[in-house]
Amino acid sequence: MFSEEGGFLTTSVDAVVNWARSNSLMPMPMGLACCAIEMMGFAGPKYDVARFGSEAMRFSPRQADLMIVAGWCSHKMAHTVRRIWDQMAGPKWCIAQGACASTGGMHRCYGVVQGIDNFLPVDVYIPGCPPRPEAVLHALMDIQEKIRAEQSVANEAHDLSGLVVKPTDEERRLIAA
Ligand code: SF4
After folding, report:
1. What is the number of domains present in the chain?
2. N or C: which end of the chain has fewer CB within 10 A?
3. CATH number of the domain enclosing 53
4. Which class of enzymes does this protein belong to (predicted)?
């Protein structure tokens, strides 16, 4: 990588991959209740989430890598949310927006899941009822920090190791013959 002065800079592949990923997160807006209104504010022009490269909300799980669960989640809805999460390609991240998504909030009743971390791996929790759009922006920045600290290349090489087809003993014998 060359600098403007004609010299060069060094970096790691992890740093470049994480820089690109952290600045191009595509949120899946899982608006389940009143917190979704604040999530819409976060996505609107006033708070300008485009500064962080995340203005492209995606309603297809195949195109999203950041699920924002905004609002309380019923047990019936939890199956659908989990299925959409499973359809998102990795690497992916999850934000629980508001007291209800994080803990069930005021809904201490049999029909509401007492925190979406009962069925989803949550990366960042946002307190408040409802949290303001600035808090959602802060959570996005926390996710970016988390991505920048990841060892992306090493992790993905490890994930791919299970896909390598190794010869069976019989094939080894045939190769050796
Ligand atoms: S935290 Fe408050 S605003 Fe958000 S879903 Fe619960 S009751 Fe609604």
Report:
1. 1
2. C
3. 3.40.50.12280
4. translocase
Does 35 carry a binding-site annotation? yes
**Residue owning the nearest CA to atom 2 of ligand 1:** 129
Classify residue 66: in a domain, yes or no: yes
With respect to residue 15, please indicate whether it lies within any of the assigned structural domains.
no
Q: List the residue whose alpha carbon is closest to atom 1 of ligand 1.
A: 129
Against a cut of 0.85, is the pTM above it? no
**Distance between CA atoms of residues 116 and 95, nearest Å:** 10
* 109 marked ligand binding residue: no
Q: Which of 81-90, 138-147, 152-161 has the lowest mean pLDDT?
A: 152-161
Q: Between these two residues, 161 and 4, which has the higher pLDDT value? A: 4
Report CA(37)–ligand 1 centroid distance (Å): 10
**Domain of residue 77, residue span:** 24-135+152-176
32, 72 in Cβ contact below 8 A? yes
Per-residue pLDDT of 43-68, as tens digits, reads: 999 999 999 999 999 999 999 999 99
Q: Does 100 appear as a known binding residue?
A: yes
Q: Measure 174 CA to ligand 1 centroid, in angstroms.
A: 65
